[in-house]
TrEMBL record, chain A:
The keyword Signal does not apply. The keyword Aminoacyl-tRNA synthetase does not apply. It comes from the Bacteria. Keywords: Membrane, Transmembrane, Transmembrane helix. This is ABC transporter permease. InterPro entries: Permease_MalE (IPR030802). The chain crosses the membrane at residues 58-78, 98-119, 163-184, 204-223, 235-254. One of its GO terms (molecular function) is phospholipid transporter activity. One of its GO terms (cellular component) is ATP-binding cassette (ABC) transporter complex.
UniProtKB/TrEMBL annotation, chain B:
It comes from Sphingobium psychrophilum. It comes from the Bacteria. Residues 5-223 form the ABC transporter domain. Belongs to the ABC transporter superfamily. InterPro entries: AAA+_ATPase, ABC_transporter-like_ATP-bd, ABC_transporter_ATP-binding, P-loop_NTPase. This is ABC transporter ATP-binding protein. Keywords: ATP-binding, Nodulation, Nucleotide-binding, Transport. SUPFAM superfamilies: P-loop containing nucleoside triphosphate hydrolases. The lineage of its organism: Bacteria, Pseudomonadati, Pseudomonadota, Alphaproteobacteria, Sphingomonadales.
Amino acid sequence: MDALKGGPKLIAAIGAGAWLTVRAATGMGRRIIAGDALAQRQLADGLPLHVWRPLRTLLPLAALAGIIAGIGAARLLALYNAQIPVLGALAEILLRDIVPLLVGLFACGSVSVALSSRLGAMALNREIDALEALGRDPVAHALGPALAAVLLSAPIHMLLGGIAAVIGCGVPLALIANVGWPLWSGFAFSHDAAGAMLTGMAKLLVYALIAFGVGSAVGAKPVRSPADIGRRATTAFTAGLLGIFSAAALWTALL
Amino acid sequence: MSALLAFEGVSLVLGGTRLLDQVDLAIEASDRVAILADSGAGKSWLLRLAIGLARPGSGTVRLMGTAMEDAAPDTRRLLRARCGVAMQGGSLLGDLSVEENMRLAIGSSDRRAGRRIDRLLLDYGLEQSAATRADALSIGERRRAELARAFVRDPELLVLDEPFEGAFARADMLEAQVRRRIVPQGRALLLLTQDRALAGQLCERVYRLERGRLIQQDAAVTVPDATS
């Protein structure tokens, strides 16, 4: 892949990411069906890393994003006093676009960097070679549990991040525009907002898969020294950002 | 009878250096072969080629009669699973415990496998470290765990690259363990080492890798000197 440049290199990288993701999914599926106790233990280890630990940062971030959006909406309401369209649009854009993108960016930072670093460290420590030497598929072993944890994390992060953003948004609405919680929650937890939340979850799933694919494709490149691991992590982060923003723009434009 | 491991005219050039030059070698069941080489001469590449982790520049490597470069990845893994491998510097999976490393190698979680693992851990003095993560082990413990893992699947062929490096005080014990598990059970061994005495003690055939070629050594040259 290193010999390629420009478009062909990008296509090769996307192909490698997709191929690794599919192999990780099928390999992990096989391990779970076979009752592999090690796979279950690895998944149990991956859940805190990819699901619970990020919440400590993610929830305050979502609440802050909600506060920022709420301040903007409150200023708009102070000017036009058009509560129904403004609050309806705010709830929808918050849950359909802002929170998924925020959580997606976070996933990019944590998943792609963590994966590329882990694969790099495994390669340096000859752990990938060891798995091959033991007759095991390194993709299923090294990436499978992480993929399962990342896929499980997407709906949980979206749901909790959405709630934190809605609560954060309610504070400036109440303080600046005098919009009470019952009124705002009526919009934020309406049928339309639930639909927006589901769309947000679908988007986040796509973003998480992009972050996973980028992290695994970058991490799978040969590593010659520990310094390479840091460089790869930076590449994974920036490439993941680009991938997630491109997908977000495409989704918004087409759907 | 086809050889368990065969190098047929294998050459390998890396970074402008010819590491292997038309190497021919056949290891059949019960053969114990050592290859002596200085550091950087290409011993670890021989291991990688032997189990299909690297492709030769030219020539063919056959493991259990199958040409590794033509075999599908799953076939290569199945063939490797019939070998016991210890890599130079160790290759335990750091985030798994010693016992999990062994279970990963044996690929089974039944009681029989558990008993086999327990016995190997006891033989290699690792019974107290079974639940310890591999990355928390000392260098000597890692080496012993790596060797124990190499034997856990009852391999037909052992490929050991500097197996006692870093084992220090326990090297003699390890050597006796390895000898006990290879010689009476008729397993084939490819030993890659710089240690001439070790090669003479464990193996019947000893080669020296010089300028990419294998040169067979006189047995008398490799037998350890009794007076030293």
